[in-house]
Fold this sequence. Notes:
Layout (H helix, E strand, L loop, with lengths): L3 H19 L3 H23 L3 H25 L1
Helix pairs in contact: 1-2, 1-3, 2-3
Amino acid sequence: MANQYFQQAREAVEAANQAVQNTTTPLEQAETVDKIKRAKQAISQAYADSSIAEREQLMELQRSFYEFTDEFMNESF
């Protein structure tokens, strides 16, 4: 059976990444920050309920996600 939290984390990261790429207004910026925070929470939640293989994938997903979003977050504040 597939790990629901793992899938939700992947979807949340994808939504946040798309939002980062498409943000142009201050309102969109606030919404994007919220999506980034939700994605980080989803990754943490998924990690607790994951197999070893899924944890490895989550760590890679988290690493690439943080690299992608750190610049945006630093510019937002």
